[in-house]
Amino acid sequence: MTNPNQAFARDGAAARQYAACVVPYLLGPWIPDLISWADLQKGDRVLDLACGTGAVTRAAAAMLGSSGRVTGLDISSEMLDVAKQTLFTIVPAIQWQLGDAGSMPFVDATFDVVLCQQGLQFFTDRRLAVAEIRRVLAPRGRFVSAVWSRIENNPYYWAVAAAADRHLGEEAGRQFRSSFALGEPSEFRSALNHSVFKSVEIRTVAKRLKLPPLPELIPQHFAGTLLANLFASTAGPSRAALITDVVRRLRINEPENATVLRLEVHLALAQ
C-alpha cells in the first residue's frame, strides 16, 4: 500500500489534503459504483484494503449500518489518523487497522467482501497481495477493486504527468504515471487471476467531472500526493509554469472557471 520510493513519503499535512481534495474531486465520484457492484448484504463482514483516509470504508459502513462489520486497513499511520479523526456516527464503529496488503493481520476467511479503491496498482508484490485477499475472504467471498484506466483516457492526469516531467523532473512524472500501472484491462485481469479467483469480471466506467479551476485544483492536488514536499519546495515561477503547461495541454481557454473533464476507471469483481 505504499510506493517503494520512500523519497516521496506522505506526511500528516499531505494526508489531510488528500482527504480534502483528492478524495472528493478525483476518487469520490466512483465510490457509489464500487459499493454498488460489491452488492453488500445484511451481516456482511467487509474489509476496505488500502483504505487511505477511509472514504470507501465509511460508505460501506453507512450501507450496512449496524447489520455488518467494517474494517479499514492501510499501511500509512498518517492516513489512518485522518480516517479516525473524521466525524462519523454510524454504529457499530469502524475498526481501523495498520497493516500491509502482503501480510494482513487477520485469520483466514475473516471477511465476506474485500474492497480496494486505487490501491492494487501500488502493491509491491501484487501476486502476494492477491493471495492474501483470497486467504482472508470467506468461501464465496468477493473482491471488488477500482483502478484508473489508461492515462491517455484520463486527460487531466496525462497533462499533469507531462507537465511534472518538464517542471519537476522525470521521477515526478513517473510517480504520477504509477497510478495507471493497471490501466489496460488485460493487465488488471492478469493481476487478479493467477489461479486465485474462479471468475473475474471487469467493466469500465467513465464520468465527466466538474473540477475546480485548474489554478486552484493543481496546487491542492499536489499537496495531497506523495509529491507534496517536492512541489512545495519548487520555486514559485516553476509552479506557475507547471500550471500554465497543464492548462495549455488541456486546451482550456478560461482556466479561472470550473473545468469539466472526462476521467475513466476500471472496476473488477473477482469471486
Describe the structure.
The protein is of the alpha/beta class and 271 residues long. The chain has a single domain (6-270), classed as Vaccinia Virus protein VP39 (Rossmann fold, 3-Layer(aba) Sandwich), CATH 3.40.50. It is 42% helix and 21% strand. It has eleven helices and seven strands. The protein has helices at residues 12-27, 31-38, 55-64, 77-85, 126-136, 155-167, 170-177, 185-192, 214-223, 228-233, 236-250, and strands spanning 45-49, 69-74, 95-98, 111-117, 137-148, 200-211, 259-270. A seven-stranded mixed beta sheet has the order 3-2-1-4-5-7-6. α2 (31-38) packs across α3. The longest helix is centred in the N-terminal third of the chain and has 16 residues, at 12-27. The two termini are 22 Å apart. 44% of the residues are buried. Mean pLDDT is 92; it is low at 1-8.
Average pLDDT over all residues: 92
Give a quick account of the main beta sheet: strands, pairing sense, barrel closure.
7 strands, mixed
CATH superfamily: Vaccinia Virus protein VP39
Report the principal-axis shape. globular
Q: Please give the count of helices.
A: 11
Number of DSSP-assigned strands: 7
- Give the oligomer, counting copies of the same chain as homo and different chains as hetero: single chain
For the termini, the CA-CA separation is 22 Å
| Domains (count) | 1
Trace the largest sheet across and list its strands.
3-2-1-4-5-7-6
> Which range does the strand content fall in?
15-25%
Round the Cα radius of gyration to an integer and report it. Answer: 18 Å
Which CATH first-tier class would you pick? Alpha Beta
- The level of helicity is 40-55%
Which architecture name does CATH use?
Answer: 3-Layer(aba) Sandwich
Low-confidence runs (pLDDT<50, min 5 residues)? 1-8
- Say what the CATH topology is: Rossmann fold
H/E series: HHEHEHEEHEHHHEHHHE
